[in-house]
Task: structure prediction
Amino acid sequence: MYKEINKLHFNEHHNIVNSTGGQQRQKRGKLVEDMIEKVWTSLGGTSTNNKFPTQRGDLEINMALDRNLYKGDELVGMVECKAYLDLCYLERAEWNARELTEYGDIKVPKFILALQPAVASASMEYVLAGNHIEEVFFLVNKRRSSSKPLYKEEYYEDIDEELFNRFYSYFHSLYQNS
Result:
């Protein structure tokens, strides 16, 4: 599975080199969603991006993280997918996870998969102390740098096999224990 995901990453890298910054970020976020889909379906599950109602008093909105993981008809996890994870993306994911848990009554593990870290460790630890995001996974060791972006040929990095295996083991365990 690692080789398939790394090949997907490599091929997509070459498809976005001539895109604008916003297009690249969007395509790389979609790439992470595609990775989730490929890995989860390889285990036998299905994945959607449907939203769920959350309600505060008389007010209701529909919310979701990027991918919802199902085993059969049962929702077993939710994933936020990012090209890179900086503080504002982490805070938003944590807020959404909290809203889904407290006001949508969705009690499944919620986690983040990102290609690269871009948040300080102390900030990440602080946000995650809210206990609404169970785990954060990164696939590339190199910290994001706006002056050395991953999408440029000279800064491209393969997905780290050890980091991928950590993420894959979590997925496998989530599927098996659901």
Remarks:
- The chain has one domain: 2-176.
- The chain is about 45% helix and 25% strand.
